[in-house]
Amino acid sequence: MTETENNLPGSETGSTSFQPIRVMLVDDHAMVRRGLATFLMVFDDFKLVGEADSGLAAIELCEQVKPDVILMDMVMPEMDGASATRAIRKQFPHVQVIALTSFKEGELIKNALEAGAIGFLLKDVSADDLAWAIRAARSGRATLSPEAAQVLVETANLPPAPGLDLTVREREVLGLMIEGLNNTQIAGKLTISPSTIKSHVSNILSKLGVASRTEAVTLALRNKLAS
């Protein structure tokens, strides 16, 4: 973990009557932190107050340097960015976190926002857009990269995953179907009647929207549905 605190010279923004925004960097790659530190020096309304190379180090450093905004990498060893964000937001609710990552998977975006991040940006964001996002975060306004917003829209429009309404017992039966057992064999394995198994199988086919055991097994394997 490293800590840096400088009064940074500015050249572009025009902030005069307020204190610089205290920014902390969290990324396990030193070159990324160096690039972001150089970026912050361009603006006179930003002040770099600390750097951390992991989520755990970020939590410790946050208490020491008291940032206003944290630029948080999402993919790090030991503790990922979402977990670190959640812990920081719980302990220091006044601190705003912007997820800054190279990845735009829907689950990553969802996890970051659910953890309390106020923004999600890709690392190829322009300097002006990143500066705008930091200022917006300090004021409590959210920022999403266009790519992240598109992924969230696409994810929201996806049909629900099959099998979410299967009961625990139905998942057990489905797992034994995958193993190739017939109704009588499944009944013996679970010590319940064959007629009950037949009812479970019928419910499984209906809930999965398939017409045969083979289709049910194929869908279950594809979506990892069995317990």
Domain module tally = 2
Q: Architecture of the largest domain, CATH level 2?
A: 3-Layer(aba) Sandwich
Low-pLDDT ranges: 1-16
Radius of gyration over C-alpha positions, nearest whole angstrom: 25 Å
Determine the number of helices (DSSP H or I, runs of at least 4 residues). 10
The biggest sheet, with number of strands, parallel, antiparallel or mixed sense and barrel status, is:
6 strands, parallel
- Write the element-wise H/E pattern from the N-terminal end onward: EHEHEHEHEHEHHHHH
| Fraction in helix | 40-55%
**DSSP E strands, number:** 6
SS-derived structural category: alpha/beta
Through-space gap between termini: 42 Å
State mean pLDDT (0 to 100 scale).
88
How would you characterize this protein structure?
Helices cover 49% and strands 13% of the residues. A six-stranded parallel sheet has the order 2-1-3-4-5-6, with helices on both faces. Residues 1-16 have low confidence and may be disordered. It is α/β, with parallel strands linked by helices and 227 residues long. The protein contains ten helices and six strands, in the order E-H-E-H-E-H-E-H-E-H-E-H-H-H-H-H.
Give the tags.
elongated, 2 domains, 6-stranded parallel beta sheet, 227 residues, disordered N terminus, single chain, Arc Repressor Mutant, subunit A, 6 strands
